[in-house]
Amino acid sequence: MTYQSGLFAGRTVIVTGGTTGIGAATARRFAALGANVTVCGLNASEAPEGVSAVELNVLEPGALAQFLAGFETIDILVNSVGVSRDRDEWQKARFDEVMAINLTSVMDACRLARPKLGAGSSIVNIASMYATFGAADRPGYAASKGAIVQLTKSLAQEYAAAGIRVNAVAPGWIVTPLSRGLFADHAASDPIKARIPAGRWGEAEEVADAIVFLASDAARYVTGVSLPVDGGYLTA
């Protein structure tokens, strides 16, 4: 997707979980389009160049509140924080941890950012294809992403009167640091790839492009949606 380089010039963009993977790709894309981008998350020293980065653990009480208090206004909030613990999620402690990171922290960020968001601003959350069909080996992750879809719809309704749009993207099989191990296991990954109509794995930058679209004026009449970015996987 091609945009003018100054499309988001002067706009303040916050990306939680923006130090790696889809979040980092999103931060890079907004920065390239002229935005003032700040990311927060673990391993902030590994954040993309050209953005401000803050080390932050969303499980630490008060951490998000303190971080967001440092901004007078926010034009775009991207909630990219997320984690998967695979089969450990069947344990209560791990399930609760995944829900706290993937769902509760997103609601917290949206609630805390609300007073700083004005008419024309936008929130984009990260759902998943697992929001559609679940996952036997990661019940917490699937449940949290399904909840993100419904949270996005609820926030879209609540914030619409203030001119704030809230949408989500639902990535499919995207190459990220978390997924490289699976893709390297051809016995497990080849059948998955064969089902993707596009015939390949997705790139984090392609999800970032969808996020940029939803945050842009090109989507000014779009709110409450969860946009699949999956190469057609859900249609197959």
From TrEMBL:
Cite the InterPro entries for this sequence: NAD(P)-bd_dom_sf (IPR036291), Sc_DH/Rdtase_CS (IPR020904), SDR_DHRS6-like (IPR051122), SDR_fam (IPR002347)
Q: Which residues form a coiled coil?
A: none
* Entry-linked Pfam families: adh_short_C2
For this UniProt entry, the molecular function terms from Gene Ontology, in alphabetical order, are: oxidoreductase activity
This protein's record includes keyword Transferase: no
Claim: Oxidoreductase is one of the keywords in the record: yes
Per the UniProt entry, the signal peptide is: none
Alphabetical keyword list: Oxidoreductase
Report the sequence similarity comment from the record: Belongs to the short-chain dehydrogenases/reductases (SDR) family.
Tell me the protein's name: NAD(P)-dependent dehydrogenase (Short-subunit alcohol dehydrogenase family)
Classification from the root reads:
Bacteria, Pseudomonadati, Pseudomonadota, Alphaproteobacteria, Hyphomicrobiales
